[in-house]
Amino acid sequence: MKRRHFLWASLLVVAGCTTATSTSTKQASTSKTIKQPEKLRFAVSDVKGLEDLQKDYGVLRTLLEEILEKKIEFFPVESYIAAAAALQLNQVDLVFTGPSEYVVMRARTNAIPIVAIERQKYYCVIATKLGSGIQSVAELKGGKTIAMWDVGSTSGHLGPTKLLIDAGLDPKTDLKIQLLKKQGLPALQKGTVAAWGGSVSRYDKFLQSNGLSEKDFPILAKGPTLPADPFVASSQLDPAFVEQIQQRLLQNQNQILKAIALADGNKFEGAKMVQVNDTNYNMIRDVYKAIGQGNSVS
């Protein structure tokens, strides 16, 4: 998921060969005790417009209809802020969002994490340029400049900022952070910044496309796997229904992963589905507090 601005199982599958009559009876009986909407409105916090939603997530939407046995309607949003507002106004039921967006969304709407998609090789690095004389992240102290992606990005801002903090640096005072998006690595190549922090996938792609190697841009630090991208449910849904959705998604995770693999530039290729709880995202909250934005996530 991309980030902007500061920061947002259905019934158990009836096992065995039962008759259509008994299955219908069980479902009818359960529906009397669990409140379920006739349809589910589904948003992806980083995709603008219905056309892009259909292009990247149309296969997933169709699959979700089969898995959840509910009509799924896309609800386009302009940003994660808009997705949070839609949750508050009961305009959307399910949202697929990024880690940093989730913590803001959770703070504003008490959205419920259901399951999450853990990307392959989803971690951050801080790199410098050969010949810079910098041997460690701590040596960036003293007003040196590091390029990052965009404000609030999990892998392009918060993740590398956590690596600065782990090295004993205060990201507000010990160095300068420039949010240069696509121009960050070219700026490091030109020597206009002392270091660059971002996702290892973006780092690898830059080296490959420019015929470079890690020797040209030595890595100073590597971070742990970042939190996964969660599916969240509106807190206004019946908790028992949310639990059923979770069960059905987990039971059909291989199909879901296949449907989502090619979305958003193939960034979910090779991913896996994981169970999730809110505490998985405390690392992001800690970084927000360290950079003076704790109110955004509390």
Architecture blueprint of SSEs:
Layout (H helix, E strand, L loop, with lengths): L19 H14 L5 E6 L5 H19 L2 E4 L5 H9 L5 E3 L2 H11 L2 E7 L5 E5 L16 E4 L5 H13 L9 E4 L4 H7 L4 E5 H10 L9 E4 L6 E5 L5 H13 L1 H8 L2 H4 L5 E4 L6 H9 L8
Parallel strand pairs: 1-2, 1-3, 6-7, 6-8
Antiparallel strand pairs: 3-10, 4-10, 4-11, 5-8, 5-9
Helix pairs in contact: 2-9, 3-4, 5-11
What can you see in these coordinates?
Belongs to the phosphate/phosphite/phosphonate binding protein family. Mean pLDDT is 90; it is low at 2-31. The protein has 2 domains: 20-119 and 227-296, Periplasmic binding protein-like II (D-Maltodextrin-Binding Protein, domain 2, 3-Layer(aba) Sandwich); 124-222, 3-Layer(aba) Sandwich (D-Maltodextrin-Binding Protein, domain 2), CATH 3.40.190.10. Helix content is 39%, strand content 17%. It is elongated. It is an alpha/beta fold and 298 residues long. Helix 5 crosses helix 11 (282-290). The longest helix has 19 residues, at 50-68. The strands form 2 sheets. A 6-stranded mixed β-sheet has the order 2-1-3-10-4-11, sandwiched between helices. A 5-stranded mixed β-sheet has the order 7-6-8-5-9, sandwiched between helices.
